[in-house]
Specification:
Blueprint: H1 2-13, H2 20-27, H3 33-39, H4 56-75, E1 90-92, E2 98-100, H5 114-137, E3 172-174, E4 181-183, E5 187-190, E6 193-196
Antiparallel strand pairs: 1-2, 3-4, 5-6
Length: 200
Amino acid sequence: MESLAADMFNKQLGEDVFTADSWTDAFMEYGCYCNKLVQGGGHLPGTAVSDDDYDVHENICMELYACYKCINIDYDHNGTYAASVMEYTAEISATGEYQCLDPENDSENHLDNCPLDVCSCDKIFAERILENYRRCKAGESNFCLKDQFQHSNGFAQNQCEDVGLKQEKHETCCGRYPNRKPMTSVKECCDNRVVDLGSC
């Protein structure tokens, strides 16, 4: 994913800004969720430091983490994060559009289309990171990476709280990729949204 994302950034920005390694250093050596994605860990670590410090970049990484978790649930990969090593066919167009090339599968249970689903998770992640980057460059500081979450500035994984999705056993998922979300038995899926049981 890193080389595709770097290529997408460079073409859409119109300049050679990133390599695969520098893209990872800039956007993945960061905070709690983004760091765990790089490590390929099997658990969601929860929010970064505190709700007050939680930022939009960490939220995008959390969304990708949730997408990968549903890949494991849907395709029975026993929590080994198969999504992080799944091979799929994708390319970056001349205009910088990230394109998943595997044929789509309309199966409601998503049981036959793991590569495309993983690709769709990676695609929307890269697009959201690019949007944050553009808004940061335009002067919207809320969309910039925060220095206190940069690993190069001393942020350590033990600063993360073990809260949130890690503590719950997710049994199924709701929605369609790439916006599919894990949920527990006390929740239900209503119009592709996770809601409290009985509230649909």
